User: What shape does this take?
Amino acid sequence: MKKIALLGCGAIGTQIALAIDSGEIPATLTHVYDGSKSASESLVEKLKNKPIIVENSHLLSSHPVDIVVEAASQDAVKDVGLSVLQNKRDLMIMSVGALLDESIYDILYDACRDFKKTIYLPSGAIAGLDGIKSVRKELESLLITTTKHPRSLKGAKFFENSKIDLDKIDSVTKIFEGTAKEAVSLFPANINVAALLSLTGIGSEKTRVKIMADPDTDKNTHQIEAAGRFGKMTFTIENFPDPNNPKTSRLAILSAIETLRKYCTNEIQIGT
Assistant: This one.
């Protein structure tokens, strides 16, 4: 049975831990860490099988685990990603935006090869990545339009230098339009889907992103348009926000759980 260490005990980390504890993911959660000790303790209290709370994030991969699951932040990926691979553990990353920093991407890419380990990036809150990946050499344009309730965008770095008042939005409003690289930097907790899409397709500088705020929606909606020599693809995904964290789609959590479940089982694999 695989042994898993968890970095981040918030909404996503908690649901992953509960899926392991219930047996939905056939593995053992052995160690956890969160920058907030109380968050770690609160998570452990919810579990029948109690993992060990380590004192710092680098200690997670020093134990004999098979994979470290990051569900914390882009900064956490930058801080511990390399050491996880150097300790010859696999790594699953939820904060995919960290990989749009080319220096981080190159370091982790080389480390996977040097230490013969794998980084897993769940599909998250979007679908259609198999199709995008299969036509990436023939892609000419890639656009993702994300629509969320204004409250889901609160706290983003973008608003530090913006005159937009989210509380005063009373109709569908375009908040941002630019590249995936810009979007991930300005909305680090909201738009990891753009990072994942750009890594799958034509890169962060060529992938276009629109972010819309809709005060009347109760969903996080992502519309993806891809075109090129192969033809055209259009996907629309409507996700309900996770009740414990409106910045996160429920689908993102389910995708993480399924990725780990596949990692821990030997069975017929569907899709690329």
